[in-house]
Amino acid sequence: MSERKSVLVTGGSRGIGAAISRLAARRGWRVAVNYHVNSQAADEMVAEIAAAGGEAFAIQGDASSETDIVFMFAEIDRRFGRLDALVNNAGVVDRKARLDQMDAGRIERMLRINVLGPMLCAREAVKRMSPVHGGHGGSIVNVSSVAALLGSAGEYVDYAGAKGAIESFTRGLAREVAMEGIRVNCVRPGTIDTEIHASGGQPDRAARVAPLIPMQRPGTAEEVAEAVLYLLSDAASYSTGAILDVTGGR
Does 238 qualify as catalytic in the annotation? Predict the structure, then answer.
């Protein structure tokens, strides 16, 4: 079994997830690149990492499905033989709407993908990292959103509420496993210029809200990735339960 550390990045083939996968490989991590549908993007990410001398593999799975999540972690056991870090990055927004325009299906989807999935992934990670289960510690980084603070009124309060839940979960799990050598932290991105806005029906959103940001610009996926890799690293060895803003001052 290789002594190189390994990390699972959910939603690791596009947007912020791709930037995290790429930077993790550059920093010497072996990377499990999770994707749900777009196998081409995942394969391209793995090929890019391999071409640069890194090690990675793509793993298909719905990060809101318990069956798929259990399979994903079993594949990491088989391919890497160890898991040292988890980045709960996979997430989704929906069309701009008020709460009184949302049906239960939309809200349930928000909670399954943005809350249930990360919790189940963290459960499987703890089973591999905790000395209670024969592990040697590790690091979990959850990806939240500035929406958790701002509330996203009139746009997607369901998404904002889900991200608020992730922040509470981060603090609680950090305390739960701190004595087991597992650090649990969170990155809170602001408006980041990625395709997630288009998936929510607002492709121009990043540019449109730029005047509301103190730094007067949206952030980049690479800037978020730097924060995530810092929290995964030994440089953050005394940080757990922390929420790191990458918001341009918003």
Answer: no
